[in-house]
Design goal:
Layout (H helix, E strand, L loop, with lengths): L2 H23 L54 H18 L2 E2 L3 H9 L4 H11 L2 H10 L2 E14 L3 E13 L5 E14 L2 E9 L11
Antiparallel strand pairs: 1-2, 2-3, 3-4, 4-5
Length: 213
Amino acid sequence: MNEGRRKGLFIAAVVVLAALGIYLTTLGDGSGEVGESGEAGPTGSAATRTVTAPPVAVPSQVATTPSADFDVYSYLPLSREQLGAAADLARRFTVAYGTYTYNDPVGRADRLKAFTTVEFGDDLTRTVTSPAAVEHDTADQVVSKGAARLRSIRDMSADSVVVVVEGTQRITALSGAKDQVEEYAVTVVQVGADWRVYDLQLAGSGQDGDVTP
């Protein structure tokens, strides 16, 4: 075999080997990419499987309604019955406080004292029977009918409750008829087995009521 023929066969062998190498690198799905079998991807490296961790359950921070047997009153210094009695006394006292007529200041004072401690009853008597108050109401012939509704409980302890009460006085007088509405902080204290009104303040005047009899 002459020199030229040997060179031609060598070149042909190189071309065949190169073609075979190209063919082997393109096996798979025809694109050079491989799946989970570990064959080479586009960059020639093995594909990495991503594993997603399950979500972590986070406890809810939203308050839920307790079960029916949950007794909130067991955590308070007073029972349901005690709170009800104190609040009802504050409401009825406010009705009596707003009910009066110009020609019977002493009767008004006596009705209020039926709801109060002795000391507070004496204070109220001096207020509603004072010469200035009696003269004012008599001159205008003031007649008032009281009404009241409970608004909230502002404070409580083992033997006292401060109740916010909205009081309405429906007034008729020589100067004209009007409705006068005020919110009061009424302090009720326990005296023996009974409840008594210990203090009365305007609820919006910065007074929280007096809970230290």
